[in-house]
Amino acid sequence: QWTTSSIVEDQVKRIGDQIGDGRAICGLSGGVDSAVAAALVQRAIGDRLTCVFVDHGLLRAGERTQVERDFVAATGVNLVTIDARERFLDALAGVTDPEQKRKIIGREFIRVFEQAERDLKAEGDYKFLVQGTLYPDVVESGGGEGTANIKSHHNVGGLPEDLEFELVEPLRLLFKDEVRRVGLELGLPETIVQRQPFPGPGLGIRIIGAVDQERLDTLRAADLIAREELTAAGLDRSIWQCPVVLLADVRSVGVQGDGRTYGHPVVLRPVSSEDAMTADWTRLPYDVLERISTRITNEVAEVNRVVLDVTSKPPGTIEWE
Ligand code: XMP
User: Fold this and answer.
1) Contact, 38 vs 48, CB < 8 A?
2) CA nearest 156: which of 302, 312, 30, 25?
3) How far, CA to CA in Å, does 151 sit from each of 100, 103, 147, 237, 270?
4) Are residues 132 and 217 in the same domain?
5) Residue 319 domain-assigned?
6) Is 252 labelled as part of a ligand binding site?
7) Are 209 and 267 in contact (CB under 8 A)?
8) Could you tell me if 178 and 286 lie in one domain?
């Protein structure tokens, strides 16, 4: 019978055996899996692990701090942050097609990450690459029968084949709930361990239309308000996730204060799900919806309308792009 602490003990020993006195690199996304994988490896080899975090500018409010401050405080890990915000904005300028956006973000991410690896390799002998691959990821990429490619998924940390690293995948036999328990056992903060799913391409695929700095700031502000109110209402555990989507190319007339406005709508997309393959729209309490709507339209100047997505998956996907 495996207990969480025996999983930790066992994995720490295996990682130690695999890496010996070598050095390892781990890409952090801000998500649960890469954080727990990194924390396990850190437990095993200490400061011979270096984590790399790419800020692509498509993160939600507070996510960079969560990695730079909270994750580092909890683990003491060596962290290199790469500020690639301008590079991603330039690459995405004017692009509206969802698949095009996904490809650009995936491509730029790999380029930035590879450069970071080359820089690290120049400094020390890094032979190992840590990945937060879970059991369901292993099963999915092996099988795949009948799975139509609906969206090209970009996983931060998904890497090209020609890299000369040996992979370290300490979560390969675990399911998500086990990974969360391991994270807690390792002392990671709840904000990281209980984080809801967030797509690799980030806010880039939640702006319907071209991505630019101003639109990102608008969406980040609206998203933060929605998250604050859902958390305050104690709903984090009962919803799977709640994307907030900015319809950047749509405008509608409104009245705010005593003036006419011509602003953008945001869409709330609260969903309930077991595994994201299918989902139902979550019946959020009206008073919570009201608070979110009032606050967004009061506090985010560019937004004058909040709408609710009441589509299940299928036919709608969870993300809009
Ligand atoms: P869809 O929109 O396909 O999303 O119903 C299903 C789940 O996957 C997340 N998602 C992604 N996660 N990289 C990821 O790591 C991606 O490119 C990506 N696209 C969607 C989405 O948030 C939902 O939980």
Assistant:
1) no
2) 30
3) 11, 10, 11, 26, 20
4) no
5) no
6) no
7) no
8) no
Residue 318 lies in a domain: no
Could you tell me the residue range of the domain that residue 58 belongs to?
Answer: 4-193
Q: For residues 183 and 112, state if they share a domain.
A: yes
pLDDT in tens, 239-253: 999 999 999 999 999
Task: Output the six-digit token pair for 126.
Answer: 């890094």
Q: What is the ipTM of this complex?
A: 0.99
For 20-39, the pLDDT digits (tens) are 999 999 999 999 999 999 99
Residue 36 zone, left/alpha/beta (φ > 0; ψ -120 to 50; rest): alpha
Count of structural domains within the chain? 2
Structure tokens belonging to residue 161: 């084949």
Asked if residue 320 belongs to a domain, the reply is: no
199 token code pair:
């797509």
232, 301: one domain: yes
Quick one: tokens of 315? 């036919």
Q: Ligand 1 center to residue 239 CA distance, Å?
A: 15
DSSP 202: G
Distance (angstroms) between ligand 1 centre and the Cα of 321 equals 9
Q: Is position 286 within any domain?
A: yes
> Is 30 annotated to bind ligand?
yes
